[in-house]
Specification:
The protein has 11 helices and 3 strands, in the order αβααββαααααααα. The protein is mainly α and 223 residues long. It is elongated and about 60 Å long. The two termini are 39 Å apart.
Length: 223
């Protein structure tokens, strides 16, 4: 049975990834204890663990803040995405098994409802599954694992980007175009599409992060 600290950790982590606890937001242990209906000791243990995960940052004589998402974070993650996912798309088109490709094409048709936040978690889950499936179609489980871990790490970036403006139909079409290129066995086109889509996604993500940064106050302003 999970301990109170474990339950607090999972609940706070989920809210950070969903941006319910926004990047840069101050976390007050007593307020978190009230919100999650546990004592301050489990909250303190959870925050310590979240700091080890890099999701919150301790501030001397202040407590913790939710770690901001920076432009540097975005650029580093997208650099890795380009390397991993462009190769996964190329390999999937080159050597993917027909049944896996058919499954990938079916997976590509999904979307969300802009500003309906209850639709976001399912979309993000299906988005991760789709991109992981491209690598699985390529026949490389390790590549799929790396992509899955990276996209999970980028959850907050994606949430910020989804709130920026309505891109639901655009992203649906991007996924379907990539799956279509893989289905057509056009390896060069699949690789090119993956690179172009990731570059476009990076532009939107940086715009969203800059907007979020603009709305943050300073730690000194809270003291």
């Amino acid at each position: 049975m999970p301990s109170l600290a474990e339950k607090a950790y999972e609940a706070i982590r989920a809210d950070i990834l969903a941006c319910e606890l926004a990047p840069g937001e101050r976390t007050v242990q007593s307020e978190l204890a009230e919100k999650y209906q546990v004592g301050t000791t489990p909250i303190r243990e959870a925050l310590h663990r979240l700091a080890q995960d890099g999701l919150v940052e301790p501030v001397p004589r202040f407590g913790y803040i939710v770690r901001p998402v920076t432009v540097r974070d975005v650029r580093e993650c997208y650099e890795v995405r380009r390397v991993l996912e462009a190769e996964a798309a190329r390999l999937a088109a080159s050597r993917g098994q027909p049944e896996l490709i058919d499954r990938l094409v079916a997976q590509a048709n999904f979307t969300y409802v802009h500003h309906k936040k209850s639709s976001y978690p399912e979309y993000l889950s299906r988005n991760l599954d789709f991109h992981r499936s491209v690598a699985l179609t390529a026949g490389n489980r390790r590549l799929a694992g790396l992509i899955s871990d990276l996209l999970a790490e980028m959850t907050r970036v994606f949430r910020l980007k989804m709130d920026l403006k309505d891109m639901a139909q655009e992203m649906r079409e991007e996924h379907m175009a990539l799956a279509g290129a893989i289905s057509s066995r056009d390896a060069s086109r699949a690789e090119e599409l993956a690179r172009d889509q990731i570059a476009h996604s990076e532009e939107r993500a940086i715009e969203a992060v800059l907007k979020a940064e603009h709305g943050l106050g300073s730690v000194e302003g809270w003291q």
